[in-house]
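Possible regression after last week's pipeline update?

I re-ran a chain I had predicted before the update to compare outputs. Posting the input and the new output here so someone can diff against the archived version. Not blocking, just want to make sure nothing changed silently.
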Amino acid sequence: MAHVELSLSEVFAPTAGTPTEQESDNFGQWSSTVSHAAEPCLLIDADTTVVAVSASGCELLCLGTPEDVIGRPLLEGGLRLVDFTANRSELTEQETDKIPPLLALHSGRLARGLLRVQGSGPDAPGTTVDAISTPVLTDGSVAGSLTFFSEV
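New output (post-update):
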């Protein structure tokens, strides 16, 4: 199983010009980082809208390209989550509320779990991923969640 460590060693400070509104807050900094990341990761806001996703995250989660999902609600942006049975039934709303990105958002705490993602097409194989999520704070309140994925 993959090991993910996350730390910030220094305060983000733009090098030139006036910072944009997005750059001036923690959430905006993570959005830029996720967009350029090589690792599979995802950033959603408090309304569960996809703000940023890495290209490798889109590939692992069978989402197409980042442009296809940014600005759309996470569960309406093409993400198909299925259970771990042989029938691969889609998760119910009650079950999707417990996936790590949403659990971190609603609880304000770290969340981790396995997800089974169904590829496009009825015969596409499912991919199992380990998801580790953390809430992202802006001005002391939860503004979204950041999730890193690793294929199992």
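Follow-up from reviewer: compared with the archived run. The helical segments are 26-36, 55-60, 66-69, 93-96, 100-107. Marking as no regression found.
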